[in-house]
Q: What sequence folds into this?
Protein backbone atom coordinates (compact mmCIF):
# COMPACT_ATOMS: atom_id res chain seq x y z
CA UNK A 1 0.00 0.00 0.00
CA UNK A 2 1.15 3.61 -0.50
CA UNK A 3 3.09 4.97 2.48
CA UNK A 4 0.66 7.90 2.86
CA UNK A 5 -1.96 5.50 4.23
CA UNK A 6 0.18 4.94 7.34
CA UNK A 7 -0.17 8.61 8.23
CA UNK A 8 -3.95 8.37 7.98
CA UNK A 9 -3.96 5.29 10.22
CA UNK A 10 -1.74 6.96 12.80
CA UNK A 11 -4.15 9.90 12.96
CA UNK A 12 -7.11 7.59 13.59
CA UNK A 13 -5.32 5.62 16.30
CA UNK A 14 -3.01 8.16 17.94
CA UNK A 15 -4.17 11.56 16.71
CA UNK A 16 -3.38 13.54 19.88
CA UNK A 17 -0.11 11.75 20.65
CA UNK A 18 3.16 13.60 20.10
CA UNK A 19 4.81 12.23 16.97
CA UNK A 20 7.73 14.56 16.32
CA UNK A 21 9.94 16.73 18.52
CA UNK A 22 12.57 19.14 17.21
CA UNK A 23 15.45 20.09 19.51
CA UNK A 24 17.82 22.89 18.56
CA UNK A 25 20.61 23.10 21.17
CA UNK A 26 21.99 26.26 19.57
CA UNK A 27 18.88 28.16 20.67
CA UNK A 28 19.62 27.16 24.25
CA UNK A 29 23.25 28.19 23.91
CA UNK A 30 22.21 31.58 22.52
CA UNK A 31 20.13 32.10 25.66
CA UNK A 32 22.92 30.84 27.96
CA UNK A 33 20.64 28.32 29.62
CA UNK A 34 21.50 24.79 30.66
CA UNK A 35 19.40 21.77 29.83
CA UNK A 36 18.53 21.23 33.49
CA UNK A 37 17.54 24.89 33.95
CA UNK A 38 15.37 24.65 30.86
CA UNK A 39 13.59 21.56 32.20
CA UNK A 40 12.46 23.53 35.25
CA UNK A 41 11.05 26.43 33.24
CA UNK A 42 7.87 26.99 31.27
CA UNK A 43 8.60 26.06 27.67
CA UNK A 44 6.60 28.86 26.05
CA UNK A 45 9.43 31.43 25.85
CA UNK A 46 11.69 28.81 24.35
CA UNK A 47 9.47 27.32 21.66
CA UNK A 48 12.26 27.57 19.11
CA UNK A 49 14.50 25.44 21.30
CA UNK A 50 12.10 22.53 21.60
CA UNK A 51 9.06 22.20 19.33
CA UNK A 52 6.64 19.31 19.00
CA UNK A 53 3.60 18.28 16.97
CA UNK A 54 0.93 15.57 17.22
CA UNK A 55 -0.06 13.13 14.50
CA UNK A 56 -3.16 15.23 13.79
CA UNK A 57 -1.08 18.38 13.33
CA UNK A 58 1.45 16.46 11.20
CA UNK A 59 -1.37 15.34 8.91
CA UNK A 60 -2.98 18.79 8.78
CA UNK A 61 0.33 20.39 7.77
CA UNK A 62 0.84 17.77 5.06
CA UNK A 63 -2.71 18.39 3.78
CA UNK A 64 -2.26 22.15 3.70
CA UNK A 65 0.86 21.84 1.62
CA UNK A 66 -0.77 19.32 -0.71
CA UNK A 67 -3.67 21.74 -1.24
CA UNK A 68 -1.25 24.61 -1.88
CA UNK A 69 0.60 22.60 -4.52
CA UNK A 70 -2.64 21.59 -6.27
CA UNK A 71 -3.83 25.21 -6.29
CA UNK A 72 -0.60 26.24 -8.07
CA UNK A 73 -1.06 23.72 -10.84
CA UNK A 74 1.31 21.05 -9.57
CA UNK A 75 0.11 17.72 -10.91
CA UNK A 76 0.56 14.03 -10.25
CA UNK A 77 4.09 13.03 -11.22
CA UNK A 78 5.55 16.54 -10.92
CA UNK A 79 8.67 16.92 -8.80
CA UNK A 80 8.99 18.98 -5.62
CA UNK A 81 12.48 19.46 -4.15
CA UNK A 82 13.18 19.91 -0.43
CA UNK A 83 16.29 21.86 0.62
CA UNK A 84 15.99 22.12 4.41
CA UNK A 85 18.05 21.38 7.46
CA UNK A 86 16.34 18.90 9.81
CA UNK A 87 13.30 20.67 11.25
CA UNK A 88 9.71 20.07 12.27
CA UNK A 89 8.44 21.14 8.84
CA UNK A 90 10.54 18.67 6.86
CA UNK A 91 8.46 15.49 7.11
CA UNK A 92 4.98 17.09 6.77
CA UNK A 93 6.24 18.76 3.58
CA UNK A 94 7.53 15.41 2.32
CA UNK A 95 4.20 13.70 2.99
CA UNK A 96 2.23 16.60 1.53
CA UNK A 97 4.10 16.04 -1.72
CA UNK A 98 3.36 12.31 -1.69
CA UNK A 99 -0.32 12.77 -0.80
CA UNK A 100 -1.09 14.73 -3.96
CA UNK A 101 0.75 12.24 -6.17
CA UNK A 102 3.85 14.32 -6.80
CA UNK A 103 7.44 13.07 -6.40
CA UNK A 104 9.54 14.28 -3.46
CA UNK A 105 13.13 15.29 -4.29
CA UNK A 106 15.24 15.75 -1.13
CA UNK A 107 18.47 17.71 -1.69
CA UNK A 108 21.77 17.45 0.15
CA UNK A 109 22.19 20.49 2.42
CA UNK A 110 25.89 20.60 1.54
CA UNK A 111 25.26 21.27 -2.15
CA UNK A 112 26.75 24.47 -3.55
CA UNK A 113 24.63 26.64 -5.85
CA UNK A 114 25.80 24.91 -9.03
CA UNK A 115 25.04 21.48 -7.56
CA UNK A 116 21.55 22.59 -6.50
CA UNK A 117 20.87 23.88 -10.01
CA UNK A 118 22.29 20.69 -11.54
CA UNK A 119 20.05 18.44 -9.43
CA UNK A 120 16.95 20.54 -10.09
CA UNK A 121 17.54 20.26 -13.82
CA UNK A 122 18.44 16.57 -13.73
CA UNK A 123 15.28 15.68 -11.80
CA UNK A 124 12.99 18.01 -13.81
CA UNK A 125 11.94 19.66 -10.54
CA UNK A 126 8.91 21.96 -10.69
CA UNK A 127 8.96 23.37 -7.12
CA UNK A 128 11.76 24.13 -4.67
CA UNK A 129 11.11 24.42 -0.92
CA UNK A 130 14.10 25.85 0.96
CA UNK A 131 15.05 27.19 4.38
CA UNK A 132 16.95 30.19 5.78
CA UNK A 133 20.34 28.46 5.68
CA UNK A 134 20.14 28.38 1.87
CA UNK A 135 19.00 31.92 1.01
CA UNK A 136 22.41 32.91 -0.32
CA UNK A 137 22.89 29.77 -2.41
CA UNK A 138 19.38 29.88 -3.88
CA UNK A 139 19.62 33.62 -4.55
CA UNK A 140 22.67 32.99 -6.76
CA UNK A 141 20.57 30.82 -9.08
CA UNK A 142 17.11 32.30 -8.38
CA UNK A 143 16.82 34.16 -11.68
CA UNK A 144 17.30 31.15 -13.99
CA UNK A 145 15.54 28.53 -11.82
CA UNK A 146 12.48 30.68 -10.98
CA UNK A 147 11.52 31.06 -14.66
CA UNK A 148 9.96 27.62 -14.68
CA UNK A 149 9.75 26.74 -10.99
CA UNK A 150 7.86 27.80 -7.88
CA UNK A 151 10.04 28.78 -4.91
CA UNK A 152 8.67 28.45 -1.36
CA UNK A 153 10.63 29.64 1.66
CA UNK A 154 10.25 28.03 5.10
CA UNK A 155 11.08 30.48 7.88
CA UNK A 156 10.85 34.11 8.95
CA UNK A 157 11.76 37.11 6.76
CA UNK A 158 10.96 35.59 3.37
CA UNK A 159 13.32 36.79 0.59
CA UNK A 160 11.76 38.74 -2.28
CA UNK A 161 12.51 36.05 -4.88
CA UNK A 162 10.35 33.42 -3.11
CA UNK A 163 6.93 32.96 -1.51
CA UNK A 164 6.42 32.30 2.19
CA UNK A 165 5.52 28.68 2.91
CA UNK A 166 4.26 29.71 6.37
CA UNK A 167 1.90 32.36 5.05
CA UNK A 168 0.68 30.47 2.01
CA UNK A 169 -0.12 27.15 3.72
CA UNK A 170 -2.26 28.90 6.34
CA UNK A 171 -4.65 29.89 3.55
CA UNK A 172 -5.48 26.27 2.73
CA UNK A 173 -7.56 23.57 4.36
CA UNK A 174 -6.11 21.03 6.76
CA UNK A 175 -8.17 18.37 5.01
CA UNK A 176 -7.26 16.73 1.71
CA UNK A 177 -8.87 14.07 -0.44
CA UNK A 178 -6.00 11.70 -1.09
CA UNK A 179 -5.09 11.00 -4.68
CA UNK A 180 -5.46 7.25 -5.44
CA UNK A 181 -1.97 5.75 -5.43
CA UNK A 182 -0.54 2.29 -6.06
CA UNK A 183 2.70 0.58 -5.03
CA UNK A 184 4.03 1.09 -8.56
CA UNK A 185 3.56 4.88 -8.56
CA UNK A 186 6.76 6.92 -8.43
CA UNK A 187 7.30 8.46 -4.99
CA UNK A 188 10.75 10.00 -4.53
CA UNK A 189 14.03 10.85 -6.18
CA UNK A 190 17.13 10.59 -4.02
CA UNK A 191 20.62 11.50 -5.13
CA UNK A 192 23.73 9.36 -4.88
CA UNK A 193 26.36 10.66 -2.48
CA UNK A 194 28.42 12.11 -5.27
CA UNK A 195 31.66 10.54 -4.01
CA UNK A 196 32.47 9.49 -7.58
CA UNK A 197 31.44 12.69 -9.36
CA UNK A 198 28.19 14.60 -9.80
CA UNK A 199 25.30 12.73 -8.15
CA UNK A 200 22.88 10.50 -10.03
CA UNK A 201 19.11 10.77 -9.52
CA UNK A 202 17.68 7.58 -7.99
CA UNK A 203 13.96 6.99 -8.59
CA UNK A 204 11.90 4.97 -6.08
CA UNK A 205 8.24 4.01 -6.01
CA UNK A 206 5.80 3.65 -3.09
CA UNK A 207 6.55 -0.06 -2.74
CA UNK A 208 10.18 0.84 -1.96
CA UNK A 209 9.17 3.30 0.77
CA UNK A 210 6.75 0.83 2.35
CA UNK A 211 9.37 -1.90 2.30
CA UNK A 212 11.77 0.40 4.15
CA UNK A 213 9.13 0.80 6.90
CA UNK A 214 8.67 -2.94 7.29
CA UNK A 215 12.40 -3.71 7.19
CA UNK A 216 13.29 -1.24 9.94
CA UNK A 217 10.40 -2.23 12.20
CA UNK A 218 11.15 -5.94 11.73
CA UNK A 219 14.88 -5.68 12.36
CA UNK A 220 14.66 -3.61 15.54
CA UNK A 221 11.30 -4.76 16.91
CA UNK A 222 10.15 -1.16 17.07
CA UNK A 223 6.96 -0.56 19.06
CA UNK A 224 4.69 2.39 19.78
CA UNK A 225 6.52 2.88 23.10
CA UNK A 226 9.94 3.30 21.47
CA UNK A 227 11.39 6.79 21.05
CA UNK A 228 13.74 7.14 18.09
CA UNK A 229 16.52 9.75 18.10
CA UNK A 230 17.17 10.99 14.57
CA UNK A 231 20.39 12.97 14.12
CA UNK A 232 21.52 12.45 10.49
CA UNK A 233 20.09 14.64 7.71
CA UNK A 234 16.57 13.76 6.57
CA UNK A 235 17.47 14.28 2.91
CA UNK A 236 19.37 11.00 3.12
CA UNK A 237 17.61 7.66 2.95
CA UNK A 238 19.51 6.40 5.99
CA UNK A 239 17.94 8.81 8.49
CA UNK A 240 14.41 8.84 7.12
CA UNK A 241 14.15 5.13 6.50
CA UNK A 242 15.27 4.35 10.06
CA UNK A 243 12.56 6.72 11.31
CA UNK A 244 10.10 4.87 9.06
CA UNK A 245 10.17 1.97 11.54
CA UNK A 246 8.72 4.30 14.21
CA UNK A 247 6.35 5.85 11.68
CA UNK A 248 4.89 2.42 10.89
CA UNK A 249 3.87 1.82 14.52
CA UNK A 250 3.01 5.40 15.50
CA UNK A 251 6.10 5.88 17.67
CA UNK A 252 7.72 9.19 18.59
CA UNK A 253 10.71 10.60 16.73
CA UNK A 254 13.18 13.20 18.04
CA UNK A 255 14.91 15.44 15.48
CA UNK A 256 18.15 16.60 17.09
CA UNK A 257 20.08 19.48 15.53
CA UNK A 258 23.45 18.78 17.11
CA UNK A 259 26.09 16.06 17.23
CA UNK A 260 28.33 16.70 20.24
CA UNK A 261 28.50 13.97 22.91
CA UNK A 262 26.86 16.23 25.51
CA UNK A 263 23.99 17.17 23.22
CA UNK A 264 23.33 13.55 22.17
CA UNK A 265 23.37 12.19 25.72
CA UNK A 266 21.19 15.06 26.97
CA UNK A 267 18.62 14.35 24.27
CA UNK A 268 18.59 10.61 25.04
CA UNK A 269 18.20 11.41 28.74
CA UNK A 270 15.56 14.14 28.60
CA UNK A 271 13.44 12.69 25.78
CA UNK A 272 13.71 9.12 27.11
CA UNK A 273 15.04 7.81 23.78
CA UNK A 274 15.20 4.05 23.40
CA UNK A 275 16.69 3.73 19.89
CA UNK A 276 19.61 5.80 18.63
CA UNK A 277 21.27 5.56 15.24
CA UNK A 278 24.80 6.95 15.16
CA UNK A 279 27.45 7.50 12.56
CA UNK A 280 30.90 6.18 13.42
CA UNK A 281 32.42 9.64 14.11
CA UNK A 282 29.66 10.50 16.63
CA UNK A 283 30.04 7.20 18.46
CA UNK A 284 33.80 7.72 18.47
CA UNK A 285 33.37 11.22 19.91
CA UNK A 286 31.13 9.92 22.71
CA UNK A 287 33.67 7.26 23.66
CA UNK A 288 36.56 9.71 23.53
CA UNK A 289 34.65 12.18 25.72
CA UNK A 290 33.95 9.40 28.23
CA UNK A 291 37.59 8.32 28.19
CA UNK A 292 38.72 11.90 28.91
CA UNK A 293 36.09 12.39 31.60
CA UNK A 294 34.52 15.31 29.71
CA UNK A 295 31.12 13.63 30.12
CA UNK A 296 30.00 11.28 32.88
CA UNK A 297 27.26 8.70 32.40
CA UNK A 298 25.90 9.26 35.91
CA UNK A 299 24.84 12.77 34.86
CA UNK A 300 22.24 11.35 32.47
CA UNK A 301 19.23 9.03 32.59
CA UNK A 302 20.07 6.34 30.06
CA UNK A 303 18.51 3.15 31.48
CA UNK A 304 15.75 3.17 28.84
CA UNK A 305 18.25 3.32 25.92
CA UNK A 306 18.05 -0.22 24.56
CA UNK A 307 19.54 -0.10 21.04
CA UNK A 308 22.49 1.65 19.43
CA UNK A 309 22.95 0.92 15.77
CA UNK A 310 25.27 2.21 13.08
CA UNK A 311 25.17 2.26 9.31
CA UNK A 312 26.31 4.22 6.23
CA UNK A 313 29.94 3.09 6.51
CA UNK A 314 32.11 0.17 7.68
CA UNK A 315 32.16 -0.07 11.48
CA UNK A 316 35.51 -0.80 13.17
CA UNK A 317 35.07 -3.81 15.50
CA UNK A 318 37.32 -2.04 18.01
CA UNK A 319 34.74 0.74 18.34
CA UNK A 320 31.94 -1.65 19.31
CA UNK A 321 34.16 -3.43 21.84
CA UNK A 322 34.84 -0.07 23.47
CA UNK A 323 31.13 0.83 23.32
CA UNK A 324 30.09 -2.35 25.12
CA UNK A 325 32.47 -1.55 27.97
CA UNK A 326 30.57 1.66 28.68
CA UNK A 327 27.13 0.38 27.65
CA UNK A 328 27.11 -3.38 28.37
CA UNK A 329 23.30 -3.61 28.33
CA UNK A 330 22.92 -2.09 24.85
CA UNK A 331 21.68 -4.13 21.97
CA UNK A 332 23.73 -3.42 18.86
CA UNK A 333 23.04 -3.70 15.15
CA UNK A 334 24.69 -2.51 12.00
CA UNK A 335 22.84 -1.97 8.74
CA UNK A 336 24.01 -1.95 5.16
CA UNK A 337 22.24 -0.43 2.22
CA UNK A 338 22.47 2.08 -0.60
CA UNK A 339 20.23 4.89 -1.72
CA UNK A 340 19.62 2.61 -4.69
CA UNK A 341 18.19 0.03 -2.26
CA UNK A 342 16.15 2.60 -0.31
CA UNK A 343 18.79 3.02 2.35
CA UNK A 344 19.44 0.78 5.34
CA UNK A 345 18.55 -2.82 5.99
CA UNK A 346 19.25 -4.68 2.77
CA UNK A 347 21.83 -6.45 4.91
CA UNK A 348 21.93 -6.28 8.70
CA UNK A 349 23.89 -7.92 11.47
CA UNK A 350 20.96 -8.67 13.77
CA UNK A 351 20.78 -7.66 17.42
CA UNK A 352 21.40 -11.24 18.54
CA UNK A 353 24.70 -11.55 16.64
CA UNK A 354 27.04 -9.37 18.68
CA UNK A 355 29.67 -12.12 18.39
CA UNK A 356 29.89 -11.31 14.68
CA UNK A 357 30.89 -7.67 15.08
CA UNK A 358 32.83 -6.69 11.97
CA UNK A 359 30.34 -8.32 9.61
CA UNK A 360 27.50 -6.33 8.02
CA UNK A 361 25.38 -9.44 8.51
CA UNK A 362 22.98 -11.40 6.35
CA UNK A 363 20.23 -10.50 3.90
CA UNK A 364 17.66 -8.28 5.61
CA UNK A 365 13.90 -8.79 5.87
CA UNK A 366 12.52 -9.43 2.37
CA UNK A 367 15.98 -9.17 0.75
CA UNK A 368 18.27 -11.62 -1.06
CA UNK A 369 22.04 -11.34 -1.52
CA UNK A 370 24.66 -12.87 -3.79
CA UNK A 371 28.41 -12.31 -4.08
CA UNK A 372 29.53 -12.60 -7.69
CA UNK A 373 32.62 -12.44 -9.90
CA UNK A 374 33.23 -10.19 -12.91
CA UNK A 375 31.02 -12.44 -15.07
CA UNK A 376 28.14 -12.33 -12.60
CA UNK A 377 28.67 -15.89 -11.38
CA UNK A 378 28.32 -16.58 -7.67
CA UNK A 379 31.72 -17.07 -6.02
CA UNK A 380 32.64 -19.76 -3.52
CA UNK A 381 32.05 -18.95 0.13
CA UNK A 382 35.11 -17.14 1.50
CA UNK A 383 36.10 -15.66 -1.88
CA UNK A 384 35.91 -11.93 -2.54
CA UNK A 385 33.36 -10.71 -5.08
CA UNK A 386 30.85 -7.97 -5.71
CA UNK A 387 27.82 -7.84 -3.42
CA UNK A 388 24.48 -7.86 -5.26
CA UNK A 389 20.99 -7.30 -3.84
CA UNK A 390 17.46 -8.34 -4.81
CA UNK A 391 14.24 -7.20 -3.15
CA UNK A 392 11.22 -4.86 -3.10
CA UNK A 393 13.36 -1.85 -2.18
CA UNK A 394 15.43 -1.76 -5.36
CA UNK A 395 15.24 1.53 -7.23
CA UNK A 396 13.18 1.82 -10.40
CA UNK A 397 16.10 3.37 -12.28
CA UNK A 398 18.60 6.17 -12.40
CA UNK A 399 16.29 8.91 -13.63
CA UNK A 400 17.09 9.91 -17.23
CA UNK A 401 20.20 7.72 -17.29
CA UNK A 402 19.56 4.41 -19.02
CA UNK A 403 23.25 3.62 -19.47
CA UNK A 404 24.04 3.91 -15.76
CA UNK A 405 20.88 1.94 -14.91
CA UNK A 406 21.91 -0.95 -17.19
CA UNK A 407 25.34 -1.04 -15.55
CA UNK A 408 23.95 -1.74 -12.06
CA UNK A 409 20.52 -3.35 -12.61
CA UNK A 410 20.76 -6.79 -14.19
CA UNK A 411 17.81 -9.19 -14.17
CA UNK A 412 16.40 -7.36 -11.18
CA UNK A 413 19.65 -7.61 -9.16
CA UNK A 414 21.41 -4.46 -7.99
CA UNK A 415 25.19 -4.58 -8.41
CA UNK A 416 26.39 -2.49 -5.48
CA UNK A 417 30.03 -1.88 -6.41
CA UNK A 418 30.99 -3.13 -2.93
CA UNK A 419 33.46 -5.98 -2.64
CA UNK A 420 32.53 -8.50 0.02
CA UNK A 421 33.05 -12.06 1.23
CA UNK A 422 30.93 -14.52 3.19
CA UNK A 423 32.17 -16.55 6.14
CA UNK A 424 31.37 -20.16 6.99
CA UNK A 425 28.21 -19.09 8.85
CA UNK A 426 26.86 -17.04 5.96
CA UNK A 427 27.73 -13.63 7.43
CA UNK A 428 28.86 -11.02 4.92
CA UNK A 429 31.92 -8.84 5.47
CA UNK A 430 32.59 -5.73 3.40
CA UNK A 431 36.05 -5.69 1.92
CA UNK A 432 35.93 -2.38 0.06
CA UNK A 433 34.41 -0.34 -2.71
CA UNK A 434 35.19 -1.87 -6.07
CA UNK A 435 36.58 1.45 -7.26
CA UNK A 436 38.72 1.88 -4.13
CA UNK A 437 40.58 -1.43 -4.37
CA UNK A 438 44.35 -0.80 -4.61
CA UNK A 439 46.28 -3.02 -7.04
CA UNK A 440 49.90 -3.04 -5.90
CA UNK A 441 52.37 -5.25 -7.74
CA UNK A 442 49.51 -7.48 -8.85
CA UNK A 443 48.10 -7.87 -5.33
CA UNK A 444 44.63 -6.57 -4.43
CA UNK A 445 44.69 -4.41 -1.29
CA UNK A 446 41.37 -3.62 0.36
CA UNK A 447 41.64 -0.27 2.19
CA UNK A 448 38.82 -1.00 4.65
CA UNK A 449 40.83 -3.90 6.11
CA UNK A 450 43.89 -1.71 6.62
CA UNK A 451 41.77 1.16 8.00
CA UNK A 452 40.14 -1.14 10.55
CA UNK A 453 43.56 -2.33 11.66
CA UNK A 454 44.87 1.23 12.05
CA UNK A 455 41.83 2.28 14.08
CA UNK A 456 42.54 -0.52 16.54
CA UNK A 457 45.53 1.57 17.66
CA UNK A 458 44.38 3.46 20.76
CA UNK A 459 46.02 6.70 19.57
CA UNK A 460 44.16 6.83 16.24
CA UNK A 461 40.80 8.54 15.97
CA UNK A 462 40.24 7.91 12.26
CA UNK A 463 42.10 6.61 9.23
CA UNK A 464 41.72 6.43 5.47
CA UNK A 465 43.83 4.44 3.02
CA UNK A 466 44.14 5.29 -0.67
CA UNK A 467 46.24 4.13 -3.60
CA UNK A 468 49.21 6.33 -4.48
CA UNK A 469 50.59 6.07 -8.05
CA UNK A 470 53.91 4.23 -8.20
CA UNK A 471 55.98 3.66 -11.33
CA UNK A 472 57.19 0.21 -10.26
CA UNK A 473 54.16 -1.30 -8.46
CA UNK A 474 51.37 0.65 -10.15
CA UNK A 475 49.99 1.76 -6.78
CA UNK A 476 51.10 1.72 -3.19
CA UNK A 477 48.98 2.21 -0.07
CA UNK A 478 49.26 5.45 1.85
CA UNK A 479 47.34 6.21 5.05
CA UNK A 480 45.80 9.49 6.12
CA UNK A 481 45.70 9.33 9.91
CA UNK A 482 43.81 11.53 12.38
CA UNK A 483 45.42 11.22 15.83
CA UNK A 484 43.47 11.77 19.05
CA UNK A 485 44.18 15.10 20.73
CA UNK A 486 45.64 13.59 23.90
CA UNK A 487 48.12 11.30 22.03
CA UNK A 488 51.40 11.72 20.20
CA UNK A 489 51.94 9.37 17.28
CA UNK A 490 54.79 9.33 14.74
CA UNK A 491 55.48 7.55 11.46
CA UNK A 492 57.95 5.36 13.31
CA UNK A 493 55.24 4.39 15.81
CA UNK A 494 52.88 3.39 13.01
CA UNK A 495 55.60 1.53 11.10
CA UNK A 496 56.20 -0.55 14.20
CA UNK A 497 52.46 -1.05 14.81
CA UNK A 498 51.84 -2.17 11.21
CA UNK A 499 54.49 -4.90 11.39
CA UNK A 500 51.57 -7.08 12.51
CA UNK A 501 50.20 -6.79 8.96
CA UNK A 502 51.51 -8.80 6.01
CA UNK A 503 54.27 -6.76 4.36
CA UNK A 504 52.31 -6.09 1.17
CA UNK A 505 49.42 -4.57 3.18
CA UNK A 506 51.53 -2.10 5.13
CA UNK A 507 51.13 1.57 4.19
CA UNK A 508 54.21 3.03 2.51
CA UNK A 509 53.53 6.50 3.85
CA UNK A 510 51.53 8.21 6.60
CA UNK A 511 49.96 11.64 6.35
CA UNK A 512 48.77 13.14 9.62
CA UNK A 513 45.61 15.09 8.78
CA UNK A 514 41.83 15.15 9.16
CA UNK A 515 39.89 12.44 7.36
CA UNK A 516 37.14 14.11 5.28
CA UNK A 517 33.73 12.48 5.45
CA UNK A 518 30.46 13.41 3.78
CA UNK A 519 27.19 14.08 5.64
CA UNK A 520 26.47 10.36 5.93
CA UNK A 521 29.88 9.54 7.36
CA UNK A 522 31.49 8.02 4.26
CA UNK A 523 35.17 8.80 3.68
CA UNK A 524 35.55 11.08 0.67
CA UNK A 525 38.19 9.06 -1.16
CA UNK A 526 38.07 11.10 -4.40
CA UNK A 527 38.84 14.25 -2.40
CA UNK A 528 41.81 12.52 -0.75
CA UNK A 529 43.09 11.27 -4.09
CA UNK A 530 42.84 14.79 -5.51
CA UNK A 531 44.66 16.23 -2.49
CA UNK A 532 47.51 13.74 -2.28
CA UNK A 533 47.82 11.95 -5.61
CA UNK A 534 47.12 14.54 -8.30
CA UNK A 535 50.67 15.87 -8.73
CA UNK A 536 52.12 12.36 -8.70
CA UNK A 537 49.80 11.27 -11.53
CA UNK A 538 50.91 14.24 -13.66
CA UNK A 539 54.58 13.44 -12.90
CA UNK A 540 54.21 9.82 -14.04
CA UNK A 541 52.28 10.82 -17.14
CA UNK A 542 55.06 13.27 -18.09
CA UNK A 543 57.69 10.55 -17.63
CA UNK A 544 55.84 8.21 -19.96
A:
Amino acid sequence: MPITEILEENCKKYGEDICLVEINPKMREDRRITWKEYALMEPTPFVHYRREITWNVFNEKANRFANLLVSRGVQRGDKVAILLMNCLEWLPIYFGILKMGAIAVPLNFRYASDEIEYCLKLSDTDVLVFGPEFIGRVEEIAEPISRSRLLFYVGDNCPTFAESYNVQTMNYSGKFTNVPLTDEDDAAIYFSSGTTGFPKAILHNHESLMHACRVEQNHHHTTKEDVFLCIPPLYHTGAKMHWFGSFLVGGKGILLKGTTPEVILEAVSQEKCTIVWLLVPWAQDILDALDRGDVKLEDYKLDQWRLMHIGAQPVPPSLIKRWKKYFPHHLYDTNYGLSESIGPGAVHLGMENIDKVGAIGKAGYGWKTRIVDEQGNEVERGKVGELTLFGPGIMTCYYKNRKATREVLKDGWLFTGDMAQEDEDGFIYLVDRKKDVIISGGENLYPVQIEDFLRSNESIKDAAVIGFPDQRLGEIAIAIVDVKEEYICTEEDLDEFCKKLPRYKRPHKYIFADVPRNATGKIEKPKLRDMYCGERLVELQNRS
The radius of gyration is 24 Å. The domain at 437-543 is CATH 3.30.300.30 (GMP Synthetase; Chain A, domain 3).
